[in-house]
Structures are given as C-alpha cells and as structure tokens.
Amino acid sequence: MKISGLLSKPSKTAPHEADTANAKLLLQAGFVRQEMAGVYSWLPLGLRVLNNVQRIIREELDAVGAQEILMPALEPKENWEISGRWNAMDVLFKVPSQTGREYALGPTHEEVVTPLIGSFVHSYKDLPVAVYQIQTKFRDELRAKSGVLRGREFGMKDLYSFHATQEDLERYYEIVKQTYLRIFKRCGIDAKIVEASGGSFTKKFSHEFHAITPAGEDDIIACADCPFAQNAEIATVKSGAKCPSCGGKLQNVKGVEIGNIFDLGTKFTEVFKVAFTDEQGVRQTPLMACFGIGTTRLVGAIVETHHDERGIIWPEEVAPFYIHLVSLQSKDQAMQERIAEVTSGLYRDMQANRLQVFWDDRTDSSAGEKLADADLIGMPVRMLVSAKTLEQDGVEMKMRGEQDSHIVRLEDVMEELSKD
Ligand SMILES: [Zn+2]
Q: pLDDT, tens digit, for every residue of 364-373?
C-alpha cells in the first residue's frame, strides 16, 4: 500500500480530546475515527491490526477444537426475561421496535447461545462442545472513556463451552487459560492471570487476564516473572514478597482487563432447560463455561504497552504492515529519478516476496515529516532510500523499537528481510 492513496493519513497534531496514549496515537496516526463518545470507525491501517488480532484468536481457538459461529447482535427480549437479566443489567441497550416489541443489543450472548446449544445437544455423546464468535457488542456505559479501552460499541470474541462433568469443564478451562496466554503473547502482551471472585474455595470460579500498563484501571499485585497476579483489594500476598508460583518478585501495578473466563455451572443451562441423557440414560443438565476477549480493547492495550513519546511500536504479528518504506526527495533531478527507481523496484520485489510493505511515496512531504510519521505509525521495520543512502549503494534499515540503524546494500535487502 502507498500512503499517497491511503484514506486516513497521519495528522501533524495530537487530538486534544484524547485522555490516554491509545486514544491519542490511534487517532493521530489515522487508525480509528471517533464517531461519538465510545464509538469508533476502524480505518484501513487500524482494521489491519484488528484483523491480525482476530486471525491470531481464530488460529489458537480452532486449534483447541472450538467451532466458530456468528450469532445475532439483536437479541430477543424473552430470553433476557428467562435469564432474569432484562431488568438486572444497567448497561443493557434496549431497542424498541415500531411493532411494539423490544429487543436487546447484545453485551454478551449467554441468552442466545444456551438455547442454541440446547437445540443440538441431547446425549452425552454430543458433549463436550465449544463454540465462539467474533462480533460487535454493545454496553450502555454512562461514561465512555480511555479511547478504545472502554466503548459503548466494541469488538469481542466470546467462547462458550458445555460439558457433561465438572472434571471435563475444568480440563477445558485450563486448556483455554493456557491458550489465552499464547494469544496475548502473540499480540506482544505478557498477560497476568488474576484469580477473581470466589477463587478456588468455591465450586464456581473465574479468572481475569490483565495487560500491565499505567493506563490500567485495576490495582493488582503481579509477579514480574510469571502470569501470577491477585486483585490488590482482596490479595492474600503483599508487594515485595516472593511469588507463590515461581519465587519471583511481586509488585504493585496497574492492569487493563483484556480477557476473562468463568465457570458458569448450570446457571444458564438450567433456566433454558438444556438437558442431555447420560450413559445410564438419566437426564442431566450440562455445565457451562464462558471465555471472553475484548478484541478492540486488546488493540488499545497493545498500544498502551507498546509506544514511546514518538508513536506506536507494533509487535510484529499484529503490525498493519511489516515494512515502512520511505523515499526522501532530492533537489538533484538525476538523483531524484534514481531514488524513485530504486524505491519502486524495492516495493515491487517486496510485494513479489509477499512481504507486507507500506510505502511513503509522498513527494510533497519533508524528510522530517516522513520520519515522524513512520515513528508515529510504528511498523516494525523502517527502510529509508535517500541520496545519502544511495551514495553507499544501499538503504538505511532501522527497527522501530531500536535506536541504531544500519546500511544494507541494495542487492542484500531481500535476504536481510527474509532473515528469521
Ligand atoms: Zn511468579
């Protein structure tokens, strides 16, 4: 992709309404556009990041046997009355129809997925089963804030699993817990696992996954070396003490919740009368667990944990493009033609080699502007072609997260980029 044709070019000035790094940088770099408080459009570069996050989630969940489906965002009121949540959830968006009926705009999907599963599961042979979807969700927040971290409309992956026994539920719960750590790791985040309400002392349990960042709203005590963490309000461990899990050092930190997992027991399967016949021919109620990841929020959390004063530093797997190719202008006509020729040749070769390349081909921008934009947008590798680099018969290569740059000879560029 060339920046000259890009719909949303980076802006020279930071938006004054931004209250967090993710809001400031995603808006300024042209990744998202705020339509109203807590509601965003995802623009070409931002959508590429979101798609990468979703691809990672799909790959990891498919690998543990979860099946992708897509449920409606518009949910029947009757189901919310059956679950008892129609009047119990403040953030539920209620939509009146001209027919006089009302609907819910889904903030979550237990009310849809449970009867759906009930229509397919009849025997112990149908269990366990796990389904997930990646979808837009809605919450009627009083105050939307913190950029894409807390919106009224947001992307979410929700996975629901159904089991014949508690042992089987706990087995799958543990598998997904480890899968979540892998998903976050591939997104560049060493997530901490916070044991939430109930803990291991009750039958029902839940865990939260947090990204550690000063922009976080939750106070947690987390291990510096492993995923162990506790909510500071109900912690049984102290900052400065040794981690009970690995012996590492515990610290007071702020976390953004990027995922949560719950053992729901028979809370929903009972009210929706889901039942299966066990091996002895006895009717039983299946157990249910649910597992969420906020996809748009995860993009925000990646920015919060991967930026400096100049801009975003995308982890490789989620970056909109891998290479940011920059061609600088020269006043010398012959040199200008040479720069254009070399850069378009590199651009072609990179595309032919299936390298994700973004080319700043603008002819009306200064060198300073182009370099500032490359830092702001934050692709992992910057390759610069200028009169100075061509004097050395090469291009200047710099990793976004590093200070040093070096010259790569033109004939070695493709080999250098295909390393590792
Ligand atoms: Zn530890």
A: 999 999 999 9
Going from the Cα of 192 to the center of ligand 1, the distance in angstroms, rounded, reads: 10
Question: Each residue of 93-103: pLDDT tens digit?
Answer: 999 999 999 99
Coil, helix or strand for 67? strand
Q: How far is 301 from 322, CA to CA, in rounded Å?
A: 20
User: Residue 149 carries which DSSP code?
Assistant: G
Q: How far apart are CA 212 and CA 256, in angstroms?
A: 6
Q: How far is the CA of 154 from the centre of ligand 1 (A)?
A: 32
User: How far is ligand 1, taken at its centre, from the CA of residue 168, in Å?
Assistant: 27
Measured in Å, residue 4 CA sits from the centre of ligand 1 at 48
Which 8-state DSSP code applies to residue 152? S
Q: How would you label 148-177 residue by residue, b for 16+ Cβ within 10 Å and e otherwise?
A: bbbbbbbbbbbbbbbbbeeebbeebbeebb
Helix H or strand E encompassing 289: strand 287-294
Q: How many CB atoms lie within 10 A of CB 241?
A: 11
Centre of ligand 1 from the C-alpha of residue 163, in Å: 31
C-alpha distances in Å from residue 230, one per residue of 209, 245, 253: 11, 12, 10
* pLDDT tens by residue, 192-213: 999 876 444 445 689 999 999 9
**CA-to-CA distance for 20 and 17, rounded, in angstroms?**
9
Residues within 5 A (CB) of ion ligand 1: 223, 225-226, 228, 243, 245-246, 248
Could you tell me if 209 and 257 are in contact, meaning their C-beta atoms sit under 8 angstroms apart? yes
